[in-house]
Amino acid sequence: MLSRRGLIATAALLSLPGLRPARAASDTIRLGVLPFGTASWEAAVIKARKLDEANGFTLEIVKLAGNDAARIAFQGKQLDTIVGDLIWAARLRSEGRGVRFVPYSTTEGALMVPADSPIKSLKDLAGRKLGVAGGALDKNWILLKAQGKETGDIDIETAAQLAFGAPPLLTQKLETGELDAALLYWQYCARLEAKGFRRLVSADDIMRAFGAQGPVALIGYLFEQQAVAERREAVQGFARASMAAKELLANEPEAWEIVRPLMAAEDTATFASLKRNFLDGIPRRPVPAERADGERIFATLARLGGDALTGGAKSLPDHLYLDASGNG
């Protein structure tokens, strides 16, 4: 599940004295964030507005180089929580790790094309150069392929000219015309929208086509069950602070002054697009509704992605979700 490069890099990272075991202080929640990840936005608001103190814990922010580093640090119990994928969380729990999932965001990626592109539907991808971020087992790619076959009447994997790569590179190639379309993560989609590019189809559109009744949070904060059991008040406090930070960003425009330096938004249009997409992704549904739709999407991904994606699990494990009060 992790690259060899990630293992080596993170082994060195974990040897640093600053990254000590997560349970050094029972009232401290150690959150791992990526350089340009939106979890750092939320964490900055929590610290600036002292939402951690108000909710009975101290938030400690640990900056990590990438997803591999975050996953290894979490699995090694060097962190209390990271933002992770529902599919990965379900796989870990199915394998015996007591991972719990707190919905974080419903904002997902999309298939982007230039504003004046002749591509109007998935069928029009035939013969086109298509960039795909995240690799062959990326959930958005699996869902897009399924959408093409089952409702779009096209086998995108064979009909299009595929190029897998890192999101920044694919974004650049789409902007220069070297690609006709690109399936990208939401932050890159938001930046392209600010430049006039348009979404052909979003992951949310596809999930609804496969039966989702509302926006689905496929990413969330991950906690170990042991931490939930032993440090329930701190975990509950973190969940409350997370939602409070989101509400501040949704209702107090001045709160974005805390976040903007972290956004790498080079102009007002980019800032506005990133802000809009972030706010649109705030989970608003109760955990049972999230779970029901999560089951539908997981079953689809298990059927199409197979054991390589889900580790053999065919459905979401019991007691995976943790609601904002620490129950569930």
UniProtKB/TrEMBL annotation:
Enumerate the InterPro entries for this protein.
SsuA/THI5
Q: Where is the SsuA/THI5-like domain?
A: 107-255
Q: Which domain of life is it from?
A: Bacteria
Q: One Pfam family from the UniProt entry?
A: NMT1
Q: Does the keyword Glycosyltransferase apply?
A: no
Q: Which residues form the signal peptide?
A: 1-24
- Assigned keywords, A-Z: Signal
What is the name of this protein? SsuA/THI5-like domain-containing protein
